[in-house]
Amino acid sequence: MHIEFEIIEKFFSKKKIKAYKGIGDDAALFKKDDNNLWAISTDTLNEKVHFEATTDAYKIGWKVMAVNVSDILAMGASPMFALLAIAMPKPNNNWLKQFSKGFFDCCKEFNIELIGGDTTRGPLSINVTVLGDVNKNSVLLRSNAKIEDDIWVTGDLGLAALGLKIIKKKIKAPNVVTKKSINALEEPKLNQFSIDKIKSFCNSAIDISDGFVADLSHILKASKVGASINFKDIPINKWIKKTGHEDLALYGGDDYQTILTASKKMRSKIEKLTHKNNLNLSRVGIITKDKKLRISDNGKEIKLKKGFTHFEKK
User: Fold this and answer.
1) CA neighbor of 65 nearest in space, from 37, 84, 87
2) Are strands 293-297 and 226-230 parallel, antiparallel or unpaired?
3) Which residue of 9, 37, 164, 231 could cross-link 297, Cys pair, CB 3.0 to 4.6 Å?
4) Tell me, what CATH number does 271's domain have?
5) Domain that includes residue 29, residue range
6) Is position 53 within any domain?
7) Residues 24, 63: one domain?
8) How many domains in the chain?
C-alpha cells in the first residue's frame, strides 16, 4: 500500500461519520436536499513537489483548480464553488496577476465561483477546495464497479509524466512532443464533455492522478473485484509507444483523465455517443471476479510495478 494511504487509514480514517460518504473516494459527499448531494474535494500543490519554481504562474493557477475539478467530475458531480488558500514568501504582483488569470480562466471554463479562502506567509503552497452537486442516483463511487463491467478511459495517458521527465532532462523528445507533454503536465485539459455524455450509463469512476495502474487498483480494492486489461487498447501517445516509454502511461502521475466502468449492456449506447460526439474515450478491458489486476499484451501477462507515491523513498 502507498505510504500516503497508510497515513490516512492509520491516523485520519474514522468509522463513524455524519457525511453521506467520507474518506475513500475522489470527493466526500454530504446531503444537499432530499434528492441531491454536495461533493467536496481539496488538494494542495507545493513548489518543488508539484511544480518547479520556473513554472509559468498562469499554468500554476490553472492547474490548482483543474486538479480539484477532476475529482469532482469523477464523482459524476458538477463543480460550482471554490475556496483558495495560498501561502507565499512575499507578495509578487506580477506573479499574482498571472496566477489569478490562470485560476479564473479555469473557473470560467467549468462555471465555478470563488467564494472565499485565505492568504498567509510561508513557502509557496496553494490549496484549493471545490464544491459541486450531484443527484443521489447519479453518484459514481469507486466501490460500485460490477463484475463484467466495461472499463473506459478518457483522453491519452502518459503525456504529463513524459513532460516531467523532459523538464528534468531525463528524456529528450521532438519539439512538438515536448510542447504537448509539458502542456499536459502544467495545464491539464479535462474531458468534462466526455464524462458528462456517458456518466449516466456508468457505475464507478476515479480520476487518474497517480497513474493508470495505481488508480484503477483503487477501484478494484474498493469494489472487491479484479480487472483484465488489453494493453493495446490503453490510449497512449504514439511517440511514447514508438520509443518504448509505455511505463509512463501505466505508472506516471498527473494525467487527470478519468477511468469509468459501465455495464456491458450500455456498451452500444456509449459507442454511439462516442462516434456521434467524437469523444476521446477508449474501452480498455473488463471488471473480473478474481480480485487481481491483469494487463495482457498479445496474450502475455505484463508483470506490474508499483505506481506513483507522494512519499517515495529516494
Assistant:
1) 84
2) parallel
3) 231
4) 3.90.650.10
5) 18-138
6) yes
7) yes
8) 2
In this structure, the number of other CB atoms found within 10 A of the CB of residue 226 comes to 18
Burial class, 182, CB count within 10 angstroms (exposed 0-12 / middle 13-18 / buried 19+): buried
pLDDT tens digits, 35-63: 999 999 999 999 988 888 889 999 999 99
Residue range 234-278, pLDDT digits in tens: 999 999 999 999 999 999 989 999 999 999 999 999 999 999 999
What percent of the chain is helix, strand and coil (3-state, nearest 5)? 40, 30, 30
Q: Which residues of 59-92 are buried (b: 16+ CB within 10 A; e: fewer)?
A: bbbbbbbbbbbbbbbbbbbbbbbbbbbbbbeeee
- 154/105 same-domain check: no
Cα 194 to its chain centre, rounded Å, is 14
Residue pair 260/284 in contact (Cβ under 8 Å)? The answer is no
What CATH number did the domain enclosing 122 receive? 3.30.1330.10
Sign of CA dihedral 40, 114, 90, 57: positive
